[in-house]
Design brief:
The complex is a heterodimer. Chain A is built from 11 helices and no strands. Chain A is an all-alpha fold. Chain B contains 15 helices and 10 strands. The chains are: A mainly alpha, B alpha/beta.
Chain lengths: 309, 434
């Protein structure tokens, strides 16, 4: 029943992707057609309803699986984009976000199990706060990545002096450079809060703030990189091409650490629990920290793993 | 003058024609003579509508064309009279056959739609033509030369032009060097408002560019020139700030856009720009080199944050844009064609005769239906009686329709006539009465 809503949302994302691609490649002045935004809004609304139903029926955010986490992340990203779109036209970001949201939604539809019993450790309210903040931070960083990529494309087009139609579809160089900084400024505190609340969750689930596992180390490395980047942009005069390249590199590290932990499971025992945050530390009841409390071992871990695999 | 006098298409007995000379058919001298003759447009129009057979006329006069769109009455000769008038005014002698073109009916409508949509312009998609057409229609209407038929044609042409403009890319790209530079600037800067433009060289080229940028909203203009007095003169005209050439480097970091049109080759080197960019803390600079030999070192292009276009680069972009407009024009033609079809349907319905025929057929079909229904319930009736009933009902219908038919056939002004026709079509539901 729920996945029907999600399936409709996925269809909406497809329609929005097509509409974005069409309006982006059309020779008419960009931003004239409201169709892409309307379609994306409808898909977002359906996705929201699906999430709400999931939360109501399971009692927690449906982020226990990789696909579920990806889907929630895409939902946040689309929401952010739509909020942003109200104040400025950034069709190029819509062109990227819509197909990504479709992939996330359809993966979620296909991989959603019947009933994933939720491990006790995932029921902590800290988890909801931690996951939401960490994912929100990641979504903002994804936007920083997107505008930085657009910056490099636009700069290459202008420098090659043979831009043609696309030059006018993309926002101005200056706008892209500025937005990339704005998104870093928003993303950084969210990432910080995401890590700190992850620590609190670790406290409540495993009794320790810091367990020193690869996932946590990667999260802190990512944090340091973004901190350095922000410092360079605000005080070191970093801008333009180099700033865009670093922003892209930082996001690549963020993505790599997330994939490493969640797909390759480099995180060891730690990473095998849930896939709730891209880089923030996760603790399941299976780690050393939970050894003193075997009762917390989730009985249904096998099913969680099964769905994720 | 083109061909035979046989009216190809007539509606309500009237014929739409466009007679004129344009950049396609006539050399500039002829267009000049004509433009002179039409200088007092209203006087010229009065001469036009005084011609035998011409009911309505609108003068379409731009630097590329002098044309008369007219609605001619049923008797032949109107179009030829118009062509004769234009040949006189353009001082075209008898050897000048083919300079004046005549378009009739659908072709005339198509032509007007294409002109309004700027598909027939020298530079496809140029935006001025629509405003000129509107103005000239108003002028004709003001002196009673334009009537309801041309009103309809021209207003339709305005909406067609709007459709072509919004649904295709005929007007989306700039096709002049200065406008292209402004376009590119909007791809570099978030907004042109408050930007500072520095002109190197106080010649005409720089001035044109500066005015373009001022129209686009830039804040301040700095004029740099070797001869300081010339810089001061231009600065006064542009409300700008004059700066002597040997001091321009001090001002360079302030400039968002630098336009080079000075003589004397390279004036701005890589080091100058590197220093300026450092001072600007990441704010980009746009260098527009309109000078030959070039004013800016080509290596400026390699600096992050500096964008350099020389005259050839801009010309290449312009060329691409013109090419794109041509491609888009094909889509514009398709829109025009479908609009001509629609318009023509309406125009043909203006004809009185088919309306009367339709009205009578409509009434008779009702009569027959009702009589047949009634007779079916009276099987005992003789054939003779049946015929009598038919005759009687036919008589009723004829009497009822007699007066309306007379009124429709009667002479009336074109305005009244088309109103009546629309009314009849609406009242009796005879298809689109609009």
């Amino acid at each position: 029943m729920h996945s029907l809503m999600l399936l409709l949302a996925a269809l909406g994302y497809v329609a929005a992707s097509i509409a974005f691609a069409r309006s982006f490649s059309s020779v008419r002045a960009p931003g004239q057609s409201r169709a892409p935004i309307v379609l994306l809004s409808v898909a977002f609304a359906l996705h929201s309803i699906d999430l709400l139903l999931e939360v109501l029926s399971a009692g927690v955010l449906p982020v226990a699986t990789f696909a579920g986490g990806f889907s929630f992340f895409a939902w946040l990203l689309v929401g952010l984009y739509l909020a942003l779109q109200a104040s400025m036209s950034l069709a190029v970001v819509g062109v990227l976000v819509s197909p990504l949201a479709f992939l996330a939604a359809i993966a979620d539809v296909l991989m959603r199990g019947d009933d994933v019993a939720v491990p006790e450790a995932l029921r902590s309210p800290w988890l909801t706060v931690h996951v939401t903040l960490a994912f929100l931070g990641n979504a903002v960083f994804a936007l920083a990545f997107a505008v930085s990529a657009a910056f490099l494309i636009q700069q290459n087009l202008l420098k090659s002096r043979r831009g043609g139609a696309i030059v006018h579809r993309l926002p101005a160089i200056q706008t892209l450079d500025r937005l990339s900084l704005v998104f870093l400024l928003w993303g950084f505190p969210l990432l910080t809060l995401g890590i700190v609340t992850g620590g609190f969750w670790s406290m409540s689930a495993a009794g320790r703030f810091w367990t020193g596992e690869p996932r946590e180390v990667l999260a802190v490395l990512t944090w340091l990189l973004y901190a350095a980047l922000l410092q360079m942009r605000l005080l070191g005069g970093l801008h333009g091409r180099r700033a865009a390249s670093w922003t892209i590199a930082a996001f690549a590290l963020l993505l790599a650490s997330y994939l490493a932990v969640n797909i390759l499971q480099i995180g060891g025992r730690h990473g095998q629990g849930v896939a709730s945050g891209m880089s923030a530390p996760e603790v399941t009841a299976t780690g050393a920290g939970a050894a003193g409390d075997p009762a917390r071992l989730p009985a249904s871990r096998a099913s969680v793993e099964g769905v994720r695999a | 003058m083109s061909g035979s006098v046989v009216p190809i298409v007539k509606a309500a007995g009237r014929e739409l024609v466009v007679v004129g000379v344009s950049h396609h058919t006539a050399p500039v001298e002829v267009r000049e003579h004509l433009a002179e003759a039409c200088e007092d447009a209203q006087a010229f129009l009065r001469r036009v509508v005084a011609l035998r057979g011409v009911q309505e006329a609108v003068l379409v006069s731009t630097c590329n064309r002098v044309e008369i769109a007219a609605c001619c009455s049923p008797e032949p000769g109107g179009a030829d009279a118009l062509a004769g008038l234009l040949a006189d005014a353009g001082r075209i002698d008898s050897g000048g056959d083919g300079l004046v073109f005549t378009l009739r009916g659908r072709d005339a409508v198509r032509h007007l739609f294409r002109v309004a949509s700027s598909l027939d312009s020298m530079i496809v998609g140029e935006p001025q033509i629509l405003g000129q057409l509107k103005q000239q229609f108003d002028l004709s209407a003001a002196c009673d030369a334009a009537g309801p038929v041309l009103f309809r044609v021209f207003h339709k042409s305005f909406s067609v032009a709007k459709r072509v403009r919004t649904e295709t890319g005929v007007a989306s790209k700039s096709v002049s060097v200065a406008a292209t530079a402004v376009d590119l600037a909007t791809s570099i800067f978030e907004s042109l408002e408050g930007r500072v433009v520095m002109l190197l060289g106080a010649g005409e080229t720089g001035e044109i560019a500066a005015r373009r940028f001022q129209a686009a909203g830039v804040g301040q203009v700095i004029v740099v020139n070797r001869t300081f007095e010339t810089a001061v003169d231009l600065a006064r005209e542009l409300s700008a700030t004059p700066v002597p050439l040997d001091r321009f480097r001090i001002y360079l970091p302030l400039a968002d856009l630098v336009v080079g049109s000075a003589g004397g080759g390279t004036l701005v080197g890589v080091e100058d720009v590197t220093a300026a960019l450092r001072e600007r803390r990441g704010s980009p600079m746009f260098f527009i080199d309109l000078a030959v030999p070039r004013n800016f070192d080509a290596r400026i292009q390699d600096l992050d944050g500096a964008y350099l276009y020389d005259i050839d680069d801009l010309a290449a972009v312009v060329e691409d844009n013109i090419e794109e407009r041509r491609r888009e024009a094909v889509r514009g033609e398709a829109i025009v064609e479908s609009e001509v079809d629609q318009f023509w349907q309406w125009f043909e319905r203006l004809d009185v005769v088919p309306t009367i025929v339709e009205l009578r057929e409509y009434a008779d079909s009702i009569r027959r239906g009702e009589v047949d229904k009634a007779l079916a319930k009276m099987p005992a009736m003789s054939d003779e009686d049946r015929e009598r009933i038919h005759q009687m009902t036919r008589g009723i219908v004829n009497k009822l329709l007699h007066h309306p038919t007379q009124v429709l056939k009667g002479e009336g002004s074109t305005v009244e006539e088309s109103r009546l026709l629309s009314a009849v079509r609406r009242l009796f539901g005879l298809g689109d009465g609009s």
